[in-house]
Amino acid sequence: MIQSKQIERPKLVLVVDDHEINRDALGVILEDEYNIIFAENGKEALDQVYRYVDELSIILLDLNMPVMSGFEVMQHMKEDERLRDIPILVLTADKSAELKALQMGAADFITKPFDIPEVIVARVSGILERSEGKKLISAAEHDWLTGLYTRNFFFEYAGRLYQYHPELHLDAIVIDIEKFHTINAVNGREFGNSVLKEIGMEIRAFLTENEGIASRIEADRFNIYCVQQADYQELLDRLQKRASRLSAKVSIHLRMGVMPWNREIEPVQMFDRARAACNMIRGDYQNPLMIYNDELHRRELLNQRLLNDLNNATKEFQLKVYYQPKYDVQSDPPRLKSAEALIRWVHPELGMISPGEFVPLFEGNGLISIVDSFVWNEAARQVSRWKEKYHFLLPVSVNLSRADVFDPTLVDRLVSLIEENGLSFKDIKLEVTESAYTDKAKDLLDIVRRLRELGFEIEMDDFGSGYSSLNMLSDMPIDVLKMDMKFIRNIESNETDMHLVRLILDIAKYLRLMVVAEGVETEGQLSLLKEAGCDLVQGFYFSRPIPPEEFEKLIEKELAIAAEQ
Questions:
Q1: Nearest to 50 by CA among 12, 27, 77, 71
Q2: Which residues pair with 321 in a beta bridge?
Q3: Residue 338, SS3?
Q4: Per-residue pLDDT for 354 more than 60?
């Protein structure tokens, strides 16, 4: 019998939290080191624990959840001999709960809002190193639902193939189901299981024709380690067809990431790259297949570098807040009325980094809250300095991301920001993108209403870029609409676009909302917007985003005009 060397296999981590943004953030932080499964309440958590009892390494457990609390989960596990040795890392914002959780067996705590990523990884790693009873995989294990190999056996087998059969050129393939949690929630777990079974059967059929092995690596993710294929789109189409035939009423979308064979890279790392490729096309139904290549590797390395450097960027003030003015164009001449705070990153080694490089990255993993908080603090201090220096009222708009809105400490943080800088609530305007209103709309509306009742003015950013604008607009607690720049770009040459702009302005007037037009670059655009009744204009026609010392020249110019009148 051939003996293989022990290889490092990703451990399985269960993240339990009723807030999706927290689950996403922890998943992104830990996914490079571990395989992650999720649950959004205590009942789902126990289901996952019993399902993966022989593979689960650690649980990150929120305490305050609907259906079943974290304390109830801990009590169940304490009473079950099979579960009591699985370490639990508690997620809590309630310091008073720590003693009770320790008494019930918690190994450690992560305080909300979360620590920096390196701290979380270190805490998980430390608990796992201290934990006893590490499990050895059996000689042959199969997933109970699909009949494919379990994660541990799959990686052991893949390691042996890599070590003892170098003549085999095996590619790493990762297949994921888009929004599988939604499929389960809407259609029931039984239907979801039937989808997984069908995909598993088709993968097994594929492997009877091609040399390789496969595993259901997570609830809705599959790994295939097989001989190189001429056309992976053909395999994806085959699996998609099998999954879709279950129901004409349910949309099931698969996506696939592939890491081509490379003798210098071991299977675990190959699947990390295949998963990275698969994750990069999340939500892209038009292009559901991604092959990992040098450009993807470069982007992945850059993304990781930016994630690693974010903490230093805030401490060392590498992040810079620029300001773009907004002008009242119904006045003659146009008058400076407010500004928007926009982030820039001047990296000591990489130079000026475009927000397009790092903002979507941090939005995707919840770390955008760190950037937003930096902008809020800098903008508030700057508004306070300008008020003291010029005795000039200049409100500044700052962004509220989805991660910010669902932070339970948000209101207190913003109130403290206003009070500490000697400002009024009207001095800082809060921008929320239109798309955010369509996700957990009721919760978001409740939070925004609270902020508005305090006296903050709320701006809906990128209005017109989403799909629910008109039918939800009358119910939204907002003061200002910011028209998406795509409407403005062609209004001089496209009458349809100009009609849309007039329609938006008419609706806003009926609802008594101010309108800001973004992305105005030409005198012709300005003239059309002014004639149509637009209130405020923002764009390169007046000024690009500029640093505060340069912005002061605009304030001084405005004061000079006021003195002449």
A1: 77
A2: 343
A3: strand
A4: yes
Q: What is the DSSP code (8-state) at residue 52?
A: T
Output the average pLDDT for the chain.
Answer: 87
What's the topology of domain 310-564? Answer: TIM Barrel (3.20.20)
**What does the pLDDT look like over 358-388, one tens digit per residue?**
988 888 777 899 999 999 999 999 999 999 9
C-beta of residue 28 within 8 angstroms of C-beta of residue 365:
yes
- Tokens of residue 217, six digits: 């690596």
Could you tell me the residue ranges of all domains in the chain?
Answer: 11-130, 151-292, 310-564
- Catalogue the E-assigned strands of 88-144: 88-92, 108-111
**Residue 286 CB coordination number (10 Å):** 5
pTM of the model: 0.61
- Structural fold of domain 151-292: Alpha-Beta Plaits (3.30.70)
- Range scoring the smallest mean pLDDT among 19-33, 99-113, 366-380, 467-481: 467-481
- Smallest CA-to-CA distance from 473 within 497, 504, 451 is with 504
For the segment 225-269, what is each residue's pLDDT rounded down to a tens digit?
999 888 999 999 999 999 988 877 788 899 999 999 998 899 999
Cβ atoms of 519 and 340 within 8 Å: the answer is no
Kindly calculate the radius of gyration of the chain based on its CA atoms and give it in whole angstroms. Answer: 27
CB 157 within 8 A of CB 149: yes
Q: How many CB atoms lie within 10 A of CB 368?
A: 24
CATH superfamily placement of domain 11-130: Response regulator (3.40.50.2300)
The rounded distance, in Å, linking the Cα atoms of 150 and 210 is 20
Q: How is residue 480 annotated by DSSP?
A: E
Extract the tokens encoding 44.
């789902």
Residue among 321, 310, 297 nearest 347 (CA): 310
**364 Rama class: left (phi>0) / alpha (psi -120 to 50) / beta:** alpha
Name the token pair of 373: 């908080």
What residue spans of 366-494 are helical by DSSP H?
368-390, 402-405, 410-420, 441-454, 469-472, 485-488
Residue 34 · residue 60 · CB < 8 Å: no
pLDDT at 133 over 50: no
Backbone angles phi, psi at 165, to 5 degrees: -130, 65
Q: Is the dihedral of CA 238, 239, 241, 242 positive or negative?
A: positive
User: What is the DSSP secondary-structure string of 487-541?
Assistant: HHTTTTT-HHHHHHHHHHHHHHHHTT-EEEE----SHHHHHHHHHHT--EE-STT
Q: How confident is the model at residue 398 (pLDDT cuts 50, 70, 90)?
A: very high
- Pick the residue with more confidence: 405 or 378? 378
